[in-house]
Automatic annotation (TrEMBL):
Function: Functions in the biosynthesis of the anionic phospholipids phosphatidylglycerol and cardiolipin.
Top-level taxon in the UniProt lineage: Eukaryota
Family: Belongs to the CDP-alcohol phosphatidyltransferase class-II family.
Catalytically driven reaction(s): a CDP-1,2-diacyl-sn-glycerol + sn-glycerol 3-phosphate = a 1,2-diacyl-sn-glycero-3-phospho-(1'-sn-glycero-3'-phosphate) + CMP + H(+)
Predominant cellular place of this UniProt entry's protein: mitochondrion
KW Lipid metabolism (keyword) present: yes
Organism, scientific name: Ambrosiozyma monospora
Protein name in UniProt: CDP-diacylglycerol--glycerol-3-phosphate 3-phosphatidyltransferase
Length: 233
């Protein structure tokens, strides 16, 4: 094992810095978790209209503080989330059967909340590759954040780790992530390529889709189930 560098031998002005950030909410009273604070700090860059971002979580149920940052963003961005048919709970038994459409309801509510925002430049992309639990069908559970600052071609900030960025994740779960900040062009290009790969099986989701497509009709039963399942989302 390589010993740690002495202080006088540490790299000055490195190309890349990695910060470990974690959420230990169930274990800490008071809570000294660093992850959500770091995420919110990163998303503060979305107030720069020259920035760009991509946000993804398989379960579309962002923590209100995170959603607020995205809703008030001034820059171009995209959110990638799972189609109901790419959700691991699709056609499951019991009350969890309603989870995919509960997340779909969240997508609809998000689109409605952004509808009157004239500065809105955020697209909602839905990922689907076949139908989960069938031959050739994939589920989607990717998660991450990528941010390109003004005048940058590729992302220079990324968050990699376990968090789903939900209320549950920051209250009931243990989460750990790596916040990566880089000026290395090769690494930035790899981050960009990762996002492009995630987008290969996506299409933009719009409010009109909920009106045109029968499978996107959100019933009162789903709305009621969403309230009952709020602790599981």
């Amino acid at each position: 094992m390589t010993p740690p560098l002495d202080a006088d031998k540490q790299i000055k002005n490195p190309d890349t810095i990695v910060y470990p950030v974690s959420s230990f909410a169930p274990l800490m009273k008071p809570d000294y978790s660093t992850e959500k604070l770091a995420i919110i700090r990163c998303l503060s860059h979305l107030a720069n209209k020259e920035a760009k971002f991509t946000f993804t979580a398989g379960y579309f149920n962002m923590h209100p503080d995170i959603e607020s940052k995205i809703q008030s963003s001034l820059c171009q961005g995209e959110i990638i989330t799972a189609s109901p048919k790419a959700n691991s709970f699709y056609k499951s038994g019991g009350i969890s059967y309603y989870l995919p459409h509960a997340y779909l309801l969240n997508s609809l509510n998000f689109l409605k909340s952004m509808q009157g925002n004239t500065k809105h430049q955020v697209s909602l992309l839905e990922w689907q590759n076949g139908e989960v639990n069938t031959k050739g069908g994939w589920s989607y559970h990717a998660k991450g954040i990528w941010i390109s600052m003004a005048n940058e071609k590729w992302p220079s900030i990324s968050v990699i780790g376990s968090s789903n960025y939900t209320k549950r994740a920051y209250s009931l779960d243990l989460e750990t992530n790596a916040l990566v900040i880089t000026k290395d062009e090769e690494l930035k290009k790899q981050m960009f390529d990762e996002v492009e790969h995630l987008k290969e099986h996506t299409k933009e989701l719009k409010i009109e889709d909920f009106e045109k497509e029968e499978e996107r009709q959100v019933s009162w039963g789903v709305k009621l189930a969403a309230k009952l399942l709020s602790g599981m989302l």
